[in-house]
Every structure is written in C-alpha cells, then in structure tokens.
C-alpha cells in the first residue's frame, strides 16, 4: 500500500519524506487554508519535497467550466500534480473532459460504492472514499471501502482506491488488508503507525540490562571510533 500524507504542512511532509516512506500527499482547501501562504507556492514546494510521488491539489469551483479552468491550471504547475474534483454531477462532467485531455483526476468526497462505480467508469485516476467521516455518521467506513474494492476487482477498473479520512492505525491496517492502493493519513496517524508500547518497554529493558553489565561488556565502538551503544 502506498502511503500518502493528508497535509499541506511542509514540515510534516519533509519529516515523512526523511523516512523514505512517503509516496505522495493529499491536500484539500481546508488543509491549504491552514498554512496561510500562496497556494501555488505551497503546492510547488510540496512537489519539490515529494519528488517522484504525487501531490493532490483540489479545485474550488463548483461548476464544470470553473473546474475545467482550474484543473488545467493546476495540472500545468507540475507533472506530479493530480487534480482533485468533488463527487458532484459537475465534478464528474469535469472528470470526463479532463481525463480525455490526459489530466489525472482524484474524485474526492466519495461516501458510497455507487459513487465509486460512477467515477471509475468516467476515468478517475484515484477515488477517495472518506472512512472517518462515514464513521462519524454511524456508517461503517471500512464496509463501504470493502464494497468498493469488490466492485473494482470484479471489473478490473484501473482507478486506484485512495482510502482517505483515516483516523487511526486500525483504519490503515484494515485498508491494507483489503489491498487498497493508497492510504492517506494525517501526520499524527503516520506517527502512530511506528509505535507499540512493547517496543518502548523492550528497548528500555535492553538498555537497563546493558548498563548494569557495562563494566564487563565494554563499549561498542565502530572502526571509525564512533560509539554506537553503551554510552
Ligand atoms: O483530505 C481529505 C480527508 O482525508 C479528510 O479527512 O480527517 O478531515 O475527515 P478528515
């Protein structure tokens, strides 16, 4: 599963990229507005950090003509940009035209398998079902995701499923078990994936035992003389 960060914060993008784990980012108008800087500059800086990965940038028009204008403009900024359009009739019309022009489209705000079926047929590059927001309305986001995966597999649609609005590690793991192509998550969830209390307890106990026997064990020193443990 590819890992995308759901953020427009350049510091978070850089941190995730430093692990070599970042395949792309998703932004939306809310996330971009939070950063308080020109959108084009923000998106281009993100492209520089993410390098070979994709950067998703969303239109804010609600009519097809406006989406077409914005979509073409966004796509012209950098080859790694994928244009996000909302799951509305106007958005699907824009998807159809922009897809025909070779522009990659991510259809966002998808909340049902029926919507996902339509956008795959219309040529979406990514479909973004929002799991957490479905859970917030007492519907099971993971269930909708599995319906989408079943349909896409049955017809071998090339549209990649981008599980969005992931609220915790369980969402990420369950999405990965279903074989979704991409999971996009806030930086907080990305950090949570690293952690397990037994890792911390185990490491503390290893180091404590090492310290107790340090006199006998000596120190680990590399050939370059850098001490790597037993400090
Ligand atoms: O980028 C859109 C999506 O992932 C939203 O997540 O947490 O605001 O529901 P959230």
Keywords:
two-stranded antiparallel sheet; eight-stranded parallel barrel; binds SN-glycerol-3-phosphate; 52% helix; 231 residues; single chain; alpha/beta; TIM Barrel
Describe the protein in words.
With 231 residues, the protein is α/β, with parallel strands linked by helices. It has two domains: 2-192, TIM Barrel (Alpha-Beta Barrel), CATH 3.20.20; 196-231. Helices cover 52% and strands 18% of the residues. The chain has helices at 10-18, 29-35, 39-50, 64-77, 89-100, 113-121, 131-136, 141-155, 169-177, 187-194, 197-212, 214-217, and strands spanning 2-6, 24-26, 54-58, 81-86, 105-110, 126-129, 160-163, 182-185, 220-221, 227-229. An eight-stranded parallel barrel has the order 1-2-3-4-5-6-7-8, surrounded by eight helices. Strands 9-10 form a two-stranded antiparallel sheet. Strand 5 (105-110), helix 6 and strand 6 (126-129) form a beta-alpha-beta unit. Helix 4 packs across helix 5 and helix 6 packs parallel to helix 8. The protein binds SN-glycerol-3-phosphate (G3P).
Give a summary of the structure in a few sentences.
The protein is an alpha/beta fold and about 230 residues long. It is about 50% helix and about 20% strand. It has helices at about 10-20, 30-35, 40-50, 65-75, 90-100, 115-120, 130-135, 140-155, 170-175, 185-195, 195-210, 215, and strands spanning about 1-5, 25, 55-60, 80-85, 105-110, 125-130, 160-165, 180-185, 220, 225-230.
């Amino acid at each position: 599963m590819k890992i995308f960060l759901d953020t427009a914060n350049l510091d978070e993008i850089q941190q995730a990229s430093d692990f070599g784990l970042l395949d792309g980012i998703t932004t939306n108008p809310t996330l971009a507005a939070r950063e308080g800087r020109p959108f084009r500059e923000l998106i281009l800086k993100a492209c520089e950090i993410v390098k070979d990965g994709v950067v998703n940038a969303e239109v804010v028009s609600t009519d097809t003509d406006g989406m077409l204008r914005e979509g073409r403009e966004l796509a012209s900024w950098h080859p790694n940009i994928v244009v996000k359009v909302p799951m509305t009739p106007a958005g699907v019309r824009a998807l159809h035209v922009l897809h025909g022009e070779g522009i990659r489209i991510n259809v966002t705000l998808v909340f049902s398998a029926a919507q996902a079926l339509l956008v795959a047929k219309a040529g979406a590059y990514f479909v973004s079902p929002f799991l957490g927001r479905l859970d917030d309305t007492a519907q099971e986001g993971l269930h909708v995701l599995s319906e989408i995966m079943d349909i896409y597999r049955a017809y071998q649609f090339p549209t990649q499923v981008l599980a969005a609005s992931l609220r915790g590690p369980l969402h990420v793991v369950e999405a990965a078990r279903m074989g979704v192509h991409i999971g996009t998550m806030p930086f907080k969830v990305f950090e949570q994936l690293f952690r397990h209390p037994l890792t911390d307890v185990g490491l503390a106990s290893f180091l404590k035992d090492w310290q107790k026997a340090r006199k006998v064990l000596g120190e680990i020193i590399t050939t370059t003389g850098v001490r790597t443990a037993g400090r």
